[in-house]
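Much of what follows relies on a compact textual record of a protein's fold. The record below shows the convention in full:
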Amino acid sequence: MSVIAFSMVAAPEEVRPARELVVAALAVAGVPLDADELADVAVMVSEAVTNGIRYGCDPGRDDQMLKVSVDLVGAGTVRIEVRDPGRGVPRPRPAGKEDEGGRGLLIIRMLASDYGVRIAEDGARTTWFELGMKVRASLAGASRRE
């Protein structure tokens, strides 16, 4: 079931609105996420969108777009996808203590129940992640109370 899908300009100032839109859409859809889970979603959306802007777009262009989608898949799993025009598979890279970047995929890997990258025929890539275990437990508890 689709919760929301939207396109956004690939610009750093659009990261916060994208994050807020995803969290709001999950709340409106009634997805049973607690405050910690919503905070995890917000962080992962921020990281995936920032990576799409930073590594998936040409910094000399201001007309590139990202596509963000949020879906409920399977038994209570939320899947969020960020598609950028970049080429190749992103790889986690080592980050030093003082580095301001280089941790996005590591953060997603730590917070998500699953994640990956899919390359389309046109070469564009989609970074996706899922939040499943806690959501499934919440949905199971809700169905037992009915």
In short: Residues 142-146 have pLDDT under 50 and may be disordered. The chain has one domain: 2-145. Residues 2-145 form a domain with the Heat Shock Protein 90 fold (CATH 3.30.565.10). Strands lie at 2-9, 65-73, 77-84, 114-119, 125-131.
